[in-house]
Write a structure and sequence with these properties.
The complex is a heterodimer. Chain A is mainly α. Chain A has a single domain, classed as F1FO ATP Synthase (Up-down Bundle), CATH 1.20.20. Chain A is built from four helices and no strands. In chain A, helix 1 runs antiparallel to helix 4. Chain A starts with a helix and ends with a helix. Chain B is mainly α. Chain B has one domain. Chain B is about 70% helix and about 5% strand. In chain B, the strands form two sheets. A two-stranded antiparallel ribbon of chain B has the order 1-4. In chain B, strand 2 and strand 3 form a beta hairpin. In chain B, helix 3 packs across helix 8. The longest helix of chain B is centred in the last third of the chain and has 47 residues. Chain B is globular. Chain B starts with a helix and ends in a 5-residue tail after the last helix. The N terminus of chain B is likely disordered. The chains are: A mainly alpha, B mainly alpha. The interface between A and B is medium-sized, with 12 and 16 residues.
Chain lengths: ~70, ~260
């Protein structure tokens, strides 16, 4: 196999990591909405926790994106 | 029809190229004034202008002043809720970081403007400022007990070494995750916009049925713009929020 082709295949495989991050993000937002609809008055106070969880989870998906970029451009 | 083509239909990463505007070399260091430096100056000037406009201290605030007051309260509440009263001495740092990143991201959304935060060295420098502040203040204030960050309270002794190992890894990957998150979001967003804009232009240039279909990528570009504005704001907010969370480690190590 040519090295160039292997690079692109590797980048594609690296993007699979985003699937995990997307499941995690879906979990975070669905749980937040579930909780917020049960107790709307407490929802506002948990907004920064929501964004914190979002950021920490999203970082992992971003890492796989960065790996894919590194494979494609170096 | 061809006026826009040579500028837009280039490689989507062409927008991140640095161009030297005024050359300045000291020894082996290249300190040239580039388009990135120019955008930093522009965003700082915009912030200064905004602050000047709102420094009249009117009892009934105008637009600029009320937005500034809202941002002040927004960041102050966030910092106070995560670090307590003692952490308020870091307010200038957190507020500066938030406003700078927000303006850099928002100005980058204007077409043909360079986005400073799409270069990882810029975001990494910002993240290192935060991390060095955390480590420096933590050691200055707590001395040896700052190491309790790696040895948290309230965990059974049996799993404590394992948790401690995890804490060490997570602490030292913080500057990477903090900088890569901001960089990759801005980088990916701008590539996406350029890609769809490029599709629209090359489909339109192809003519015939394809030209009629170019409305699809064009509409997508329009839909992506508000999303990117949202991402710009959320990423500035997340950076400031994580700064607050990390600072709370320096203020009271070992409590989570």
């Amino acid at each position: 196999m040519e090295a160039e082709a292997a690079k692109y295949i590797g980048a594609g495989i690296a993007c699979l990591g985003m699937a995990g991050a997307s499941i995690g993000l879906g979990n975070i937002f669905s749980s937040y909405l579930e909780g917020a609809l049960r107790n709307p008055s407490a929802a506002q106070g948990q907004f920064s926790n929501l964004i914190f969880g979002f950021a920490v989870t999203e970082a992992l998906g971003i890492f796989s994106f960065a790996v894919a970029l590194i494979m494609m451009f170096t | 029809m061809n006026i826009g083509l040579p500028i837009v239909a280039k490689d989507p990463t062409a927008q991140f190229e640095l161009h030297t505007l005024a050359e300045l070399k000291i020894g082996n260091f290249d300190l040239s004034f580039t388009n990135s430096s120019l955008m930093m100056v522009v965003s700082i000037l915009c912030v200064c202008l905004w602050f000047l406009l709102s420094s009249k201290r009117q009892l009934i605030p105008g637009r600029a002043q009320s937005v500034l007051e809202m941002s002040y309260e927004f960041i102050a509440d966030m910092l106070k809720s995560s670090t307590g009263k003692e952490g308020m001495r870091f307010f200038p740092l957190v507020f500066t970081i938030f406003i700078f990143i927000l303006f850099a991201n928002m100005l980058g959304m204007i077409p043909f403007f360079f986005t400073i935060t799409s270069h990882i060295i810029v975001t990494f420098a910002l993240a290192m400022v935060v991390m060095l502040t955390v480590i420096g203040y933590g050691i200055w204030k707590n001395g040896f007990t700052f190491l309790k960050v790696f040895w948290p309270d309230g965990i059974p002794m049996a799993i404590k070494p394992f948790v401690s190992l995890l804490e060490i890894i997570s602490f030292f990957s913080r500057p990477i995750s903090l900088s890569v998150r901001l960089w990759a979001n801005m980088f990916a967003g701008h590539i996406l916009l350029k890609l769809f804009a490029g599709f629209a232009i090359s489909m339109f240039a192809a003519g015939g049925l394809l030209a009629a279909g170019s409305i699809v990528p064009f509409t997508l570009t329009l839909a992506l713009m508000p999303l990117e504005f949202l991402v710009s704001f959320v990423q500035a907010y997340v950076f400031a929020l994580l700064t607050c969370v990390y600072l709370s480690d320096a203020v009271s190590p070992g409590h989570h």
